[in-house]
Amino acid sequence: MLPNDESLQRELQRIAAAHHHMPHDVLGAHRFGERLVYVVHLPDTRSARLLPDHPLQRLADSDFFTGSWPWRSAQAALPAHCTIERVDGAGNTHRFTDPYSFAPTVDEASLLRFASGHDCEAWRMLGAHAACYDGIEGIRFAVWAPNASRVSVVGPFCDWDGRRLPMRVLGESGVWELFVPGLAIGTLYKFEIRNRDSGSILLKSDPYARAAELRPDTASAVTDSRHVWRDADWMRARREHDWLHAPLSIYEVHAGSWQRHADGRMLDYRELAAQLIPYVKRMGFTHIELLPISEHPLDDSWGYQTTGYFAPTRRHGSPDDLRYFIDECHAQGIGVLLDWVPGHFPRDEHALARFDGTALYEYADARKAEHRDWGTLIFNYERNEVRSFLLSSACYWLEEFHFDGLRVDAVASMLYLDFGRGTDYVPNQHGGRENLEAIDFLRTLNTATHSRTPGTMIIAEESTAWPQVTRPADTGGLGFSMKWNMGWMHDTLDYFKLDPVHRSHHHNRLTFGMMYAWSENYVLALSHDEVVHLKRSLLGRMPGDRWQQMANLRLLHTYMWTLPGKKLLFMGGEFGTPWEWDFRQSLPWWLTEHQEHRGVQTALADLNRLYASDSALHRHEFEPQGFQWIDCDDASNSVLSYIRRDGRQQRVVVLNFTPVPRTDFRIGVPQSGGYREIFNSDSAHYGGSNLGNDGNLQAEATPAHGQPYSLRLTLPPLAGLILAATETDGP
Question: Are residues 165 and 82 in the same domain?
């Protein structure tokens, strides 16, 4: 029997009502004077005992079962962790080790680090982890919910009953913890949270879950990795990799629609490894960038409305299947980047929104919290624990999955308080519109990732003129490795959609980008955003008949691959799909059976190989010594010409943006001797008219365009040429 203690009775009432924040103080074994009293709370139970043979008595008409023994004899008779046997209401027998007999499993140092806002490994403390304490195996659960009066872990193991397994809060940290013996990898679970003020009860997925159910189901899943990495050489080389001066050609992929089975099913990660990797290697890309494969409930969001910041989506298999995919990429010399979304998250009830009944991960003020353009919520970068959450997510993908970098989505929306809000925003402490805490977070993010995982790249999708995005954080920059060149993208696509007869009036759209090319480390990106929402595909934007459209697309690729700046192309653009991207179905691969589409594909593969092997085209992409105009002012002919160099060798690029062939066309060149075409986008091999310059071209001692020598060329229509001096080393 229980001691006649009013305070104890009140504590039991709080547990029965599912209000208690420290159930370990009441449940399990406790000493009262010279008696040891054992208390368990077992709803829907007929009888219970401690094994091997210590019956427990039901307390009055409650769901509590108790036993009492003399202190000294009980110490010898009862183990430190008792096994409880219960018979449920249906007569089924269950045995389990008492979870309330274990000491706290989270140390004070981890809690302090998490609360500091600089924790890069919070996933090790929070979430669900297989663990073994005192020789007993089970799962350790921990979750941050500072405004809860009670948190329980629930799942099939307790019939989703929040009364069964309440957790304890650790001091004032807001972190709740419980070790549940006997649970195994694969267990489904959620957290049931009672808000302290309103008393409302929420059922939430684990923010730190490393796996989840397949949508539309939303439970978290316990997981652990058994993958044995084989990429030690890649990882060692990555630490020393000079990405500033190395070729970077990124193939942007939506895993759910790159290719599908005949019955419409998506490929899993292992099937992607078998099919995507050989294709990317054959096409000459150096990296794959995956649209967000972090867990998300709605396919239509393409992964950009993330609910699982530590969980790869179940759509394509298990976390270890994803590790296998990345390992195979590295084995084939291909890097892998992940699209990562730290700017906003969806309002789904099971996820982060009002996680403990309050604005926890988001700002409390709706003028800061609500993203009006996307209907999502904005992270509260002022809150240290939220910063630790996001820092840990970034480091988790880089360290636990060996991703080679992150592309950070929607950076502009993080930098500006008035993004998408007009005048309805809360100014910062200085009265400005800059989000100072988000700026500080981004600097911390980039400093931490570059320090912890040297050689990885953090790339900003930043669409404004914010200065020094790719300059070091300690000198006032944001610290990103690279930034998408959105201005170049808009100017280029606006130019290419023009009928060539009008292009001479818009020549500056081709040349303006070089006015600011060295202000940041730029990636030239033609991404998924440019082939959806009625913008048309790249091919569909092009004017003229189908031959001219194909020629324009080959010319666009040539222009892009010969300009300074790393490269990114969304899937389908490499073979000229005429339709906008549809995430619900596979790319139209059957088009590559047609010579005109196969020609575009072949041209891009050759450009990739040339770009990767020829250091003149990639050595100085972020430095002015790698580029020189020959003639940027020939608007009347819509022709551009420039030099790419690496300090030892030079390449001459000439681009004709009209369908008019030009013969005996003179351009200045920097050195005497012979020149040869090493690429011609008008080659018959690519579906072109096969007009060009056969054999060796000989430079004449006639100065032109400020160069000491000149060449007389035949310029094919809507085409680009790359020329190399014959006495220099070719690609």
Answer: no
Let me know whether 193 and 127 are in one domain. Answer: yes
Verify that 721 and 687 share a domain, yes or no: yes
To the query of whether residue 373 is one of the catalytic residues in this protein, the response is no
For the segment 651-673, the average pLDDT, to the nearest whole number, is 97
Within 10 A of 7 (CB to CB), how many other CB atoms are there?
7
The SS3 call for residue 378 is: strand
| Final residue in a domain of this structure, among 46, 72, 101 | 101
Q: For residue 178, is pLDDT > 80?
A: yes
Cis ω before 52 (30° cut-off from 0): yes
Q: How many residues in total does the chain contain?
A: 731
The CA dihedral of 304, 310, 315, 317, to the nearest 10 degrees, is: 150
Give residue for tokens 């023009």: 498
Q: 164: domain range? A: 108-221
89 and 137, same structural domain?
no
Structure tokens at 41: 């709370």
Bridge pairing between strands 45-50 and 719-725: unpaired
* Same domain for 200 and 150: yes
According to DSSP H, which parts of 196-341 are helical? 232-239, 269-283, 319-331
Q: Annotated catalytic, 461?
A: yes
Residue 169 pLDDT greater than 70, yes or no: yes
pLDDT at site 61: 85
Domain check: are 644 and 522 in the same one?
yes
pLDDT at 222 exceeding the cut of 90: yes
- From 538, 493, 539, 533, select the one nearest 513 (Cα to Cα): 493
- In Å, how far from its chain's centre is CA 227? 21
Per the listing, tokens 């809507």 go with: 718
Task: Indicate whether 1 belongs to any domain.
Answer: no
Q: Which of 328, 325, 252 is nearest to 291 (CA)?
A: 252
More confident site: 630 or 4: 630
Question: How far apart are alpha carbons 330 and 308 in whole angstroms?
Answer: 25
Which of these is catalytic: 252, 328, 461, 614?
461
Q: What is the pTM of this model?
A: 0.95
Residue whose C-alpha is closest to residue 460's, from 583, 566, 346, 618: 566
Q: Does residue 730 have a pLDDT over 70?
A: no
From CA 77, how far away is CA 29, in angstroms rounded? 13
Q: Could you say which of 119, 192, 409, 437 is catalytic?
A: 409
